[in-house]
Amino acid sequence: MLIAQLSSFPIEQVANLLRLEQDLGRWCTDHPYPCRLIAISHAFDIEEAAERVRARLRDLLAVGLLADALLPSLRALTIGDATAPHPADVVADLPARADAALADLCATALPIILDDPEQASATHWLALGEVLEALTWTRPVLADLHDFYTQLATRRIRAATYLLVVWEPPTASAQEILDSLAYATGQRVVRCDQLRPILPGPVMVDEQRACLVPVDRAHPHVAVLRSYDMPTTIDALVLHPLLNGDRDIAIAVDILPLSPGKAQRLAETQYSAASMALRTSRTVDPQTAQRALDAERTLAELTTSSLHQVQVAVLVQGSDADDLAIQVAAARDRLGMAVRVEAVAGSQAELLSLFSTTPSAQIDAAWCRSDMLAHGVGCLLGVVGFHRSPITEGWLFGVDHRQAPVFIDPFSGGRAGHMVYIGVTGFGKTFAMNLLTLRAAALANNRVIWVDAYENGARLERAIGAGATRHVLSAGRTINPLDLVFGPEDGERWLHAQVGHVIAQLALIMGTLGSEGERRVLIPRVFTRDEEGFLQRAVALLYAEVP
Fold it and tell me: For the structural domain made of 2-44+158-258+306-385, what CATH number should be given?
């Protein structure tokens, strides 16, 4: 048995819905194994993201204690306030944890503060203050972000998880199944050890009322609805309305493939029976005529497709018995004629097993399967296109129209992330970009460089404080082309990148004015091969002693 977690995707962005349905159906044809897709709409678990913020705050705790104790006296020293205690006196009374942080900071660069604080000059103390501010500027940002996560958790934020259970034969390759699923969906597929729990606690079966009553009254009442007919044409959106709500709900699509021979015999039998009924009847029965057409189409499709017997089950929850009845009716209404469902009395416990890893052959339920070609099965599997990502990797970008928080790390896996903001003036594009860059720097420790033509940098500098440096570029502004732009923290090839940057700056400085149409442009100098070689060697020597 194989359990795979499928990543969802926004089906609204799929240009060719028919192609998606066919790709998913083709996967079922190419892998004729019993399988079961379980789609779960549940509350978004933001605790993992909140714990990452708390971990960052814990890492800053010791240096934060030092900053809280020392920065007021350092600021007083800056303005010449003699009434405030001297930094040396503050250092003498530091608690043990803050004292240890001070030792770590000053051991190499400012040993005089450790050895003889009274002899340390104002320059030494102010240098320490700059270091402390640079290290602790993220604390208020992280604290605000944690409070925001806490408030967000009280809202009905949602996520959706998709799990596929496959009972493959011993000769099948699990990795091939995962790879083919990833190709069919165009998304990442991960192998899992177990299913996500469906129910919050134990339940008692009330078969007479066709429901499951919780043992703990704080837990919801549950009912399992079973499909009994799919009389209309469906597409990949057929199950999406069930998930598009603010209540926990789960869908199981149990798929049993039929062998080619059995599928052929079943279709021929259906066609013969329907044709015979039409020939012997004086009036044309529309349902019988439709069955004959369906059987004839199935016989034609079986040359390139496969036939499956499908059972859909829907697990709905309600706060009490009355609310459960409302949710059951709502589920029926959302599916409409496309998938007719009902709560079957006397089979609730067995139908609940469809949300487990128990094979359907071991479930003694009141089955009412629908015969379906691979394309139809692909339509049901299209439920994975209902995108409510449960991922918390990266940082929070916002909450989408489906009430799902969107966490993204645009640079994970070595990717070069790109983004374009499109919106009406005054509707928050710049604010959103400010917020995202603040989170990227504070939470993910990214280095952020803004190139700003509209004086937004002043707002960022006020918000970030010591964590930002603003450079106002103008004709009178001098820039040192030898300044470090790349350093050892950028990897083993940082020196190569730095040398290339300096040579590019020199090419601009030594360029000439030219024209491009009616415009005057600066044409960078093109160095000869020998000149570039000499420059590379000379510039590299300048950074030989960079630690």
Answer: 3.40.462
